[in-house]
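Bug: token stream looks shifted between consecutive jobs. Job 1:
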Amino acid sequence: VFIAQSRASGSHRDVEDEELTRIFVMIPKSYSEEDLREKFKMYGDIEYCSIIKNKTTGESKGLGYVRYLKPSQAARAIEECDRSYRAILAEPKNKSSESFEHDYYSNNPRQEPRGSMLPFCGQPEFCSFEKNESRIQESVSKRLSVLSRLPFIQEQLFALFDLVPGLEYCDVQRDPLTNSGYAVIQYSTAASAIYAKYKLHGFEYPPGNRLTVIFLEDGNDSSE
């Protein structure tokens, strides 16, 4: 298994340096670089830590970078660190930090979870899923519809959605006129379907082809 690089990228080493070993995190403003290193050193060998500061006052903005020696270490940190850090892979340095910070705040607003946490027992990532207002208004079910500009291959799509526990069936259909992809996915629980939609709606598969994942009525009471 390896990570594919875009055609516009330089050598693999350049991509590894710029895109796969540096993570961007949200931290308390009281953190020093040593505090940041202490919190993240358990995931791998750290090359450096840095905290983004206000250029005028020198005060921390509550954001920082952690650079690991290996992509696998950065990936582990993103997966295993506390969700409050909202860790993501950092943009390459050639993108201005101001625009990246803006995008990050837009996509990761710091706010208290609204509604209740869904009871995904035994799955730490499930437990962090927040039922916000827009998701509550959707008609939730155990069945999903998947749309694509490109036709699906049954085995590949099954393998993709089988990453979420509880997949019952994957039925790939094809429109001979448009050659677009359409499939119906069903899980054993609505919780699994919610998580699959949350993770895979907008996912590019194959790269450049964005999936559209929506709920389908399955005859059950969605209020549950």
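Job 2, same session, no restart:
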Amino acid sequence: GKVPPSSILASAPSDRNLAVWRESGCRTTHCNLEVLQESTLVFLATKPHVLPGVLQEIRPAVGPHHIVVSMAAGVTLQTLQRLLPAGTKVLRLMPNLPCVVQAGAMVFSRGSGAGDEEAALLKSLLSSCGLCEEVPESYINIHTGLSGSGVAYVYLFAEALAEGAVKMGMPGGLASRIAAQTLMGAAKMMLETGEHPAKLRGDVCTPGGTTIHALHQLEKGALRATVMNAVEAATNRARDMAKD
């Protein structure tokens, strides 16, 4: 809701990826250079191996008035700045899947040519898609392991919650809805109270109650260590991809 669809111009090699943009009322083209001619703020949303070729193509059209935002995983600000004209206002953004339902978690870093004005503009636009924070570039790979890949960890946990309820006799559809609402409610409490999750977890436990018995089983299964290992593995993989 921050920008009218008619102000957005999307480019892709084929019509296959442009249909959804047209359905939303956006303009489309097959010419990347046309985007540079028509737009000031340009998002680069390609696969990492495709991006260098796109940057080479658009480089002659990039001017000091452009703000270029890359969403390509593993492509550093240093690489972006090297492949674009000196002084280009470049930012690197890493979103996650729930952005499509306006509940995403995004982080971005700015290159040497981008200032407070460009950072504020990007944060303002993306705030409609969820949480958006500016971070040092070294955090972006960690964000990938925590939130980009982390969405899948949460889906796995939600699936396990629901299957546990199915095992105990609840219909699957109802169990899935309750599991999803439970996760959403717990996350909302973390964000709105600002409390450490350990404090909130403790608030749920009563002496000798159901929760502490269940938490004992999770601890025996090394849930915390396993999740920490998952974040570490995904972060390391993101760092390796940046070197490839």
